Every structure is written in C-alpha cells, then in structure tokens.
Amino acid sequence: MDARKEILRRVFGDSSDSEEDLELGDGSESDPTHSWVPTKEIKGLWLCRDFLSPQNQSSLLTTIQNEGWFTEDSHNQAMRFGDLPAWAAELSDSIHKVLLSSDFVSDPMELRSSHDGKDNISPFPSDLLSREPLFDQLILNSYQPGEGICAHVDLMRFEDGIAILSLESSCVMHFSPVEGTSRDFLVDGDKDPPTTKIPVHLTPGSLILMSGEARYLWKHEINRTPGFQKWEGKELHQKRRISITLRKLCQVE
Predict the structure, then answer these.
(1) What is the pTM of this model?
(2) Residues 6+ apart with CB under 8 A from 141
(3) Under 8 Å CB-to-CB from 7, ≥6 apart: which residues?
(4) What band does 221 get if pLDDT is binned at 50, 70 and 90?
(5) I need a labelling partner for 229 at 20 to 30 A (CA). Which of 143, 147, 193, 196 fits?
C-alpha cells in the first residue's frame, strides 16, 4: 500500500481496494447520508447535514491531530495552497464525485447556474463542476468555546464555489446581505433585503456549499459569545469546533 492510500485508509477507514470508495455513498436520493437542502432565502446556499459519518469524522480528526496542525493553543489556523494534503485532496474529490452523481438532474452538464435567476437544481452550477481541480486551497481553523468569526465575504482572490465542513461542535452560522445589494438579486421579488439574519444550523459532519449570490452577496459569521448560539430556542452546548474550508484560487493572467 503506497503512502497516499495509507493516509486515506487512516482518514476514511477500510472500505475496499479502490481508493475512490470511501464510505461516502453515491449521493443518490436513496443514500440518506447525502440529503442536500437548499436555503430558500439565499440562492446558492446548500446544506448536507451528514456528509461525513461519525466514524469518518473521528478518523479525520485523528489524522489532523497526528499531523500536528494544532500542536499549541496559539496555533489555531493553518493554510495550504496548491498541493493539498492527501486527505484534503480526497475530501475535495469526494465532494466533486458526490455532486456529479447526485440525482439533481439526469445529466450534470444540464445543471443551471444559480446566477441566472432560475431555480437552484444543484448545489454547484455546471461551470464549477467542470473545473479541475474543484478546490486547490485549504484553510483549517480551530475555535475554542466562545470563539467565532465576524461577518465577512470571502476574498475575491478566490473563485466562486466554497465548501465548509464542520467538525466536533455544533454551531449556528448567520447570513446577512451585503450592504447595497441590488434588488435584482433578491429572492422572490422582495423589495428590500431582509433585516434579520438567516440562521443555518451546522452539526458535526455537515457540509455547506456557497456559490453565486450566497458566495458574493451574503456575509456569513459565527458569533459564539453567550446568548447568540441558540437553535429552536435552546442554547447550544459549545466545545471546540474545527472547520475545514476548501476554495479555488483565481487564475493569475
């Protein structure tokens, strides 16, 4: 077994002789682990609540720990560009494969972009799914209880299409429209942007995908100070949260 296969085996567990068969399922409607839900208020925002099984989450966390990403409390962020770690490259490939095989439409090339104002029928439009690789930049963050991230739109140095995988602690990510958002981009003909923030509950192993309006016209934040992390009226119990963000760098001309 070569080094890359051994890393993948440690991360995703033993499945078969094929390194493409990673217990992630085929993304079909019959696979309950990959149920994709669009956020009706925000075009281009999709959630897969159980993208990774508890076993795969545990294996992935063990690999992150063994690789020494967060050896000290002061080390709470790590980035990689271009050549991703084997486990991150496999995660990117798995997201790509699941999206292509999911039964949103019969032919992935028929996927419509969420940019054109039509109904979302896939988490990523066809132009994103056709790029290789799907992602080439990794940012790994470790948040202690009470630590979050302020409202922001990801830098324009990254292309459209962002994936965020959550591990360990549940949290609520809030989305708010960018100031001065054009009325042409509002959902369902709203005359004004919503004044309240749109909450999205992220559980361990969940994956969110942002493209189009969700990526460019909505800020996202996680406020983990006491009183802000509530879901269905209950305060969420906070522990350490690990987030894995995958993006694609813009090509330099």
Answers:
(1) 0.79
(2) 76, 77, 149, 242, 243, 245
(3) 63, 85, 86, 87
(4) very high
(5) 193
